[in-house]
Amino acid sequence: MQxxxxxxxxxxxxxxxxxxxxxxxxxxxIRPLLGxxxxxxxxxxxxxxxxxSAIMDNLAGSGYDACKYVIPAGxxxxxxxxxxxFLNFLAQEQITRKDAVIAFGGGVVGDLGGLxxxxxxxxxxxxxVPTTLLAAVDSSVGGKTAIDIPAGKNLVGSFxxxxxxxxxxALMDTLPKDIYRDxxxxxxxxxxxxxxxxxxxxxxxxxxxxxxxxRCVEIKRDVVQQDEFDNGVRGLLNxxxxxxxxxxxxSDFGVSHGEAVAKGMVIASRIAxxxxxxxxxxxxxxxxxxxxxxxxxxxxxxxxxxxxxxDKKRRxxxxxxxxxxxxxDCALVDVELGELHALLVKVMG
Length: 349
Ligand SMILES: NC(=O)c1ccc[n+]([C@@H]2O[C@H](COP(=O)([O-])OP(=O)(O)OC[C@H]3O[C@@H](n4cnc5c(N)ncnc54)[C@H](O)[C@@H]3O)[C@@H](O)[C@H]2O)c1
Known about the structure:
349 residues; alpha/beta; Rossmann fold; 2 domains; seven-stranded mixed sheet; three-stranded antiparallel sheet; 12 strands; binds nicotinamide-adenine-dinucleotide
């Protein structure tokens, strides 16, 4: 079986294996890292239906005693109730410090599983087995874990790196089209912020999934290694997200994350030339439309501005936004809030 391994060197060093059919090698990958131990698999209802027995059979076949906890599919599951329920499950199963959690699913399972592992017994090891494109290129890499609370998304979490990421790209064959496309928005983001060659490759569909996932993971790895705790360059990964989060919020999450990020990247690209940077908005819009994204924005400047005032990237009177200098080269720019409002009025009316 052919696969690629990318090594991350952060507060914990770990390998990310990427390839078709890798779920069949999960136990084999885990053995040298964890030795004899018990494994607690966290997954969601959809992934469990499709692949629950495959993962449990693989772990049993590799000699592991594994237990499984299934949460309902969907963002609403990334909540405090499920965090506590899963922690309680780990205790009931008598999971100890030498045991580990396996987060088997998309970003919801990955974030909840990672946070649970960071808290249980003050921290046990965990393995990410991403099953969505977004989780493969983004949430399973870099150690950000979180749950949502009523005051906002991802407001409670930790930086806690996994021990291993095992990404079986064949699992994405069963993703609903819109979920796969949400991941494509993040892939296009990587091309825009740091890699024009990747961006060019994305012009022809379908792209080579293994190659593209591996390149995105390398880009994220490089950024995380420079700024694990998100105090600087990691902010580049927010390209399109500041405006995207505002759109998600205004739509009461009716607009999907990927579509909101696509719209947000276009808004940022329209602002860039007004700040003396290049104008790639038309080119980017064209690519996003090839992927089927609706890049129009039904909200006006005032609404977007009000919604982004609570953004985590806001620092007093300024907010950090990511603007393109060229395709494959973005910059973090601190913009004074009044100026940002004026820029939004100019590009959105
Ligand atoms: N930690 C990070 O760095 C980071 C980065 C980006 C996003 N996130 C988080 O990730 C979450 C979004 O992740 P997501 O888009 O993967 O959502 P998700 O986990 O909700 O998965 C989307 C849907 O796809 C289904 N699914 C998963 N794998 C499947 C498969 N192989 N076949 C068929 N269906 C499958 C799920 O059941 C779910 O219904 C958000 O909570 C976001 O905050 C975290």
